[in-house]
Amino acid sequence: MLKLTSKQNCCGCTACASICPKGCIAMKADKEGFCYPQIDEALCINCGLCEKVCPLLHKPAQHTILNVYGAKNCDDGIRYTSSSGGMFTLFAEQVLNSGGVVFGAAFDESLQVCHTGIYTMQELAKLRGSKYVQSNMNGIFKQVRTLLAGGKKVLFSGTPCQIAGLKGFLMKDYANLLTVDVVCHGVPSAKVYNKHLTEIAEDTGEAVTQVKFRDKADGWKRGKTLFLTENHCMGSSKRRETYMRLFLNNVSIRPSCADCAFNNKRSLADITIADYWGIDKQFPEFDDDKGITLVLINTTNGQQLFDSIKDKTTYISTDFEKGAQYNLAVSKSLGLHPKRQYFFDNLEQKTLKELEAEILPPL
Predict the structure, then answer these.
(1) What integer pLDDT is reported at residue 76 of this predicted model?
(2) pTM above 0.70, yes or no
(3) Which domain does 90 fall in, by range?
C-alpha cells in the first residue's frame, strides 16, 4: 500500500488509482487544489500494484539524447495557433492519418483542462497550445490501455510525469504507442486557475468564455496570456499577467514540481518538445519570431516519427546544451518560492492580485 509521507512524493499522475484492482484509491483534491491518492484501507488487499506503478517510486536514470533539433511547421497558420513551432500538430496528424488516436490536454465546455482522446483532424485544434494548469486525468490511462490492447495506434502527449505515470500503469511496452512530453515549468492547481476565472468574472461582470495562455498577436517572444469575456479582453504579457507571474515564479505550482524527476535527459517519452528560447541568439537567421520548437529525440521510435514528418518542417540540428541554455526547465530543478506556503494559506481570504502584490516585487 502506498504511504505518502510527503506531498513532494506525488505528481498526481493517477497511475495508482487507475491500476488498483479493487477501486479503493481515489484522487482527492487537498486545500491547495492538487489531487492526491486516498486509500480505503478496508478495501485494500495489499497487492502492491500502486507502489509498482508509481513513477516517483521508480525514478528514471539519465539517458542519451539521440538528436536535438530546432524545428518549425511549414504551415504558418498552424504555427500561429501553436505555443511554439507547431511540431505537435505534425506528430498528431501523422498518427491520425494512420487511423490512430491522439491524447492530450483540452479545455472542456466549462474551460476546465482535461485529458481527452481525439480521432479526427477536425478535433485536433483543441489539443493545440499550452494549458498552464494540471489536467484532469481520471479514466484516461484505462482508455489508452484498451485502445492499445485492441491494436489501435496511440499518440499520448502530456507532462513528463504524466508520460511516466502512463508507462508505469501499462506495465509493458506497446509497439503501437508513441509518446510526446512537453518540457514543464510545473503545474498550478485547478483551484488557483478557477479562482482567477472567478475574479475576472467579478471584475468584468461577465464569465470568461475563452482562455489563450500563449497569444502570438505581438509575436512569439512577446506572447500574451488573455482571458476573454463577451465584451472584455483581460490579460497582458505572460511575464506581467497575475496568474502567470504566480506560476512562473513557482508560487502556485505543485510541490513535486520543485525537483522534477523527469527533466534533464530523464524523460520516458519518445520525443520531448519545448520552446526553443534563445534561438535568436544562437541561430538568429533561423528565428522569425513566429515560434520555434526545441525537439529532443529520446528513442528510435521518436526518431522515426520525426523523420516521417520532417518534409513538412524547416529544421536545424543543435544540441542539448544549447537547447537548455535559455529554457531552464529543460535541465534544472526550479524549486518553490519561499512564500508559497503563505500564498496557499491565504488563498481563500485574499485575491490573486492582492497575493501577487504581497509576494512578488512590483513590475
Answers:
(1) 97
(2) yes
(3) 67-187+260-330
